[in-house]
Specification:
mainly beta, 44-stranded antiparallel β-sheet, 8 helices, 44 strands, disordered N terminus
């Protein structure tokens, strides 16, 4: 920024020199199609020198177009007006105004200019002010390409032209104070000195780099005389927000030390050295590179030390949010390294002596994490150990476990099977292999075995009515493919003295905002007496078989399935269960007895009960044991009194059906329409 202003001042000095060399006599006009000076080209130049009536000269210099490539200025119109006098020390004094039209950031659109030319001292001094912005420059007359510049309150946007010669970014806000040394060469500039920024902002067209409300001070060196251009910065930054590719920082009010060396060429930016030290939150050394499109080409973080929760609050919140984890609570410390390039992850490792993490939505919680992992896309890494005191996935609370990991050929694998206590039973994880660099295809593959999982505890954890039984079975293959997890084989659940067989299960976006679960479920010989006692539905005896195919849950709410339920071996059903079954189909009870007589019986014999529902969108298409134009049979009676329940509503609103089921299981009277 300083360089832009100093360069502008230099140009003004050169313009002033053009007027100065004119003969000191009244009303002399000079015109030129083109005036070319080192680093400056003027076109359609008009100069006028005349007497001001006070012993001095009036100077007017206009250029329809001024180009200063090293400053990023193109097609800038310039108008310099003022008076020129000699003082008692034989110095030339100029006071006037300068107006530029089309300069980046509307720089010097209406500025005051004061210049002193001291031939004896071989110096040119220039002071420019516009509103609260002030710029001062001093340079030797015999070396006008070298200047000392002082800036106060300069709008950062005035430096947009110079920034455009370095990268594709755009200055959006902020003020700058600076004391810089500037050297102007044909191929560019060299500048160095101290600076202070307040409320600075910038962004890029790709949106991968941006800053807002950033404050800081430090030392800056810029060299655009060679290819690529070079930038060195050592600064203390505080306040505001920064985005550098995948790194988002909400800077604290206390100073954060930032040191970087960068090269820029044709819009690409390569941070060959990047050091950040936020004492109570985050420290690392590394490298970061973007191509001209703003895409990350390299990110390497070495010697990373993170202290939570400050590291998460200032630097990790946005990154974890992209992984679907919002409002995470983290305490502890972590050390590690990370290396990725345009193709993806190359290596990472971390180690902690104590870390607690919990997702506010209850999807994942880890307590007492100790140890680490070490992975690389190529070669072999030393084996590591990772322990935890508690692990909770959704509402499933797992006990402590110790795992052993090793990376070979890009796969991070468990070295031995891992047994994790879960709900009075255990889960055995075997042959787990994770390929972190796999952008698509199989990222993770493992096998799981469940034994003795208490269904009552499982039900309580899920907020369901308490089922009795145990969950057991094996998943011979569980794979994380692209963005979803697929289960190979089946999982058997022993519940209500029968079985649920779950097959073709997959889970998409397990930690996203709307996970999608798909599965087929087979029901075999469930004891209806146990089942209806749990749900307080009314008593039904007998055995239930059925299927729930093509089940699809979005954020754990069903949006589609094909369900068929059949109790085909007969049994007895209570008066209350009859009423509840009737409410589902919006039907009625057909019997050879009058309703008043029906009420004399507490239970009824039945031969078959059948009910089906095909859910599409929010509508359930109902069916029963048989279907005809008058409806469908839900219950076929047996013995006396002979009972038959017929449903008439074939299209039922799903939320309404759920509301009826909830009312039935809560013991409230059924809603029959």
């Amino acid at each position: 920024m300083r360089f832009s202003s100093s360069h502008l001042l230099l140009c003004l000095g050169i313009l002033f020199g053009v007027g100065l060399v004119l003969p000191a006599r009244a009303d002399i006009a000079l015109g030129a199609k083109t005036v070319s000076l080192p680093g400056l080209k003027l076109q359609e130049v008009q100069a006028l020198v005349g007497e001001d009536g006070q012993g001095g000269l009036k100077l007017s210099l206009r250029a329809a177009r001024a180009d200063v490539p090293t400053m990023g200025w193109r097609r800038v119109a310039a108008d310099l007006q003022g008076s020129l006098q000699r003082d008692v020390h034989m110095r030339w004094l100029f006071n006037g105004t300068v107006q530029l039209v089309g300069a980046p950031g509307a720089a010097l659109s209406n500025a005051k200019v004061a210049m002193v030319v001291d031939e004896a001292a071989n110096t040119l001094e220039v002071d420019i002010s516009q509103a609260a912005a002030q710029a001062s420059m001093a340079l030797p007359l015999d070396q006008p390409t070298h200047a000392q510049i002082s800036l106060k309150g300069l709008p950062v946007s005035w430096l947009q032209g110079l920034l455009s010669t370095l990268w594709s970014g755009r200055a959006t806000a902020g003020k700058l104070d600076a004391d810089m040394a500037l050297d102007l060469e044909n191929k560019g500039i060299q500048a160095s000195g101290q600076f202070a920024l307040s409320a600075a902002g910038f962004d890029t067209a790709s949106g991968t780099m941006a800053g807002q409300g950033v404050n800081g001070n430090g030392r800056l060196n810029i060299d655009t005389t060679s290819t690529p251009s070079r930038i060195d910065l050592d600064a203390s930054m505080r306040g505001g927000e920064l985005l550098l590719g995948p790194i988002y920082a909400r800077l604290p009010d206390h100073p954060v030390q930032v040191s970087l060396a960068a090269t820029t060429h044709n819009g690409a930016v390569d941070f060959t050295r990047l050091r950040v030290a936020d004492a109570d939150a985050l420290q690392f050394e590394g490298m970061l590179a973007f191509n001209a499109k703003g895409e990350v080409q390299k990110l390497k973080l070495d010697k990373l030390q993170a202290r939570f929760p400050a590291a998460y609050q200032r630097y990790g919140q946005a990154w974890l949010t992209t992984l679907g984890m919002r409002d995470v609570r983290i305490d502890g410390q972590l050390a590690g390294n990370l290396d990725l390039d345009a193709s993806g992850l190359r290596s990472f490792d971390f180690d902690t002596d104590g870390l607690d993490l919990a997702d506010s939505e209850g999807r994942l919680s880890i307590k007492g994490l100790r140890g680490g992992v070490d992975w690389a896309a190529e070669g072999e890494r030393p084996a590591t150990t990772l322990n935890w005191q508690g692990l909770q996935v959704y509402r499933m609370v797992n006990g402590p476990a110790q795992s052993r990991w090793q990376s070979r050929g890009g796969a991070l694998s468990l070295q031995r099977a891992l047994e994790v206590p879960l709900l009075n039973g255990k889960v055995r994880i075997g042959d787990l292999e994770w390929r972190p660099a796999a952008a698509r295809g199989r990222r993770l593959e493992t096998s799981l075995t469940f034994a003795g999982i208490d269904m009552a505890a499982f039900s309580r954890a899920m907020g369901w009515p308490e089922f009795q039984g145990t969950l057991g079975g094996a998943i011979p293959g569980l794979r994380w493919i692209d963005d979803h997890i697929e289960m190979e084989g089946g999982l058997t659940v022993n519940v209500f003295d029968g079985f649920l067989n779950i097959t073709r299960m997959s889970l998409q976006g397990p930690f996203g905002s709307s996970p999608i679960l798909s599965a087929d479920i087979q029901l075999r010989q469930l004891d209806l007496a146990l089942m209806t006692s749990v749900f307080d539905f009314g008593s039904i005896t007998g055995r239930l078989d059925g299927s729930i195919d093509e089940l699809r849950l979005v954020n754990w709410n069903p949006i589609a399935f094909k369900a068929n339920l059949l109790a085909g071996s007969g049994g007895r059903i209570s008066q209350r269960a009859v009423n509840n079954l009737t409410s589902f189909g919006g039907g009625g009870v057909a019997t050879g007895l009058q309703g008043a007589v029906l009420k004399l019986f507490k239970t009824f014999g039945y031969k078959r009960i059948g009910l089906s529902c095909v859910l599409q969108g929010s509508v359930c298409r109902m069916g029963g044991l048989d279907n005809n134009a008058d409806g469908y049979t839900i219950l076929e009676g047996s013995g006396l009194p002979h009972l038959q329940i017929v449903g008439h509503q074939t299209q039922v609103d799903w939320p309404t059906l759920v509301r009826r089921l909830k009312a039935a299981t809560e013991g409230t009277p059924p809603e029959v329409r």
